[in-house]
Amino acid sequence: xxxxxxxxxxxxxxxxxxxxxxxxxLRVVLVVMIVGCVLTAWFLLRxxxxxxx
Length: 53
Hints:
Elements: H1 2-20, H2 23-45
């Protein structure tokens, strides 16, 4: 029963996305890309930190 409710919500979201266009999807993709770039830069640049031993 829960599966049918989830499937129903998924189809409703998909049909709403068709009417809305690609604006929302484009925003999500851009936000994910920016967050990914920031995390990648942080991960790579943290190895260059100077150690004061």
